[in-house]
Amino acid sequence: MKKIKPALTLGILGMVLTIGICVQLKTINAADISGTIQLTDSNLKKSLLQWKSKYEDSNKKLEDTDEKLIKLRNSVTNLESDSETKKKIQKYEDILGMTDIEGEGVIITVADNDKIKPSDSFSSINNSDYIVHDGNLVAIINELKAAGAEAISINGQRIVFSTNITCAGNVIQINGEKVGSPFEIKAIGSKDLLYGELSKNGGTLYKLKKYGVLTNIKKVDNVSISKKI
């Protein structure tokens, strides 16, 4: 019985030593792994910082590029805006008759027929039918505008939206100035469209000619109309 106790004691001690050694080995292995992880984390952090720096540099360059692009777009927009503004200003100046203008178009002449005598075939027609009235000129102007006329003048008087055409005795007043027969009407625009509109059957010139008023219309490659004085 005494011999068994020492053996049992030795066995227990051996077991304890074995467990201790195993625990120590595990601790050492864990320490190595932890060191490796720490080393790996350090490398990852370093790499991450490097990529972060590169990203920030790239992002800064991208922002600079975007800013330059925005400025360039604004410059182009401003140029286009200026161009559009200039076109609009030019258009309104033309409408207001503030500028001289040239282009293709037509020249129309209408004149009183002072050769009519009572013995002529027009004797049954009222004498006022074969002289030009303010209403006739207004009708011609309206037809020209309908055909796309860009500018119109009568005997040198520029026709604009504010122009008044009225009778004043034996003469007609345009823009407050007296003008008389013959009336030379200039119009700038498509010469074919203007000519087609003014020479059509049933139009103002057709009716005036029918009543004996002297009329003429011709296409012109270059018409000059002065600005409104």
Description:
The N terminus is likely disordered. This protein is of the alpha+beta class. It folds into two domains: about 70 residues; about 120 residues, Alpha-Beta Plaits (2-Layer Sandwich), CATH 3.30.70. The strands form two sheets. It has a five-stranded antiparallel β-sheet with strand order 3-2-7-1-8. Strands 4-5-6 form a three-stranded antiparallel β-sheet, covered by helices on one side. It has four helices and eight strands. The radius of gyration is 50 Å and the shape is rod-shaped. It starts with a helix and ends with a strand.
List keywords for this structure.
disordered N terminus, five-stranded antiparallel sheet, 229 residues, 8 strands, 4 helices, Alpha-Beta Plaits, alpha+beta
Short description:
The protein is of the alpha+beta class and 229 residues long. The protein has helices at 4-95, 134-146, 191-199, 204-210; strands at residues 101-111, 151-154, 157-159, 165-168, 171-174, 177-179, 183-188, 214-225.
How many domains, as an integer? Answer: 2
Low-confidence stretches: 1-5, 33-37
Biggest sheet features? 5 strands, antiparallel
- How many helical elements? 4
Shape label: rod-shaped
By CATH's scheme, which homologous superfamily of the largest domain applies?
A: Protein of unknown function DUF881
Total number of strands: 8
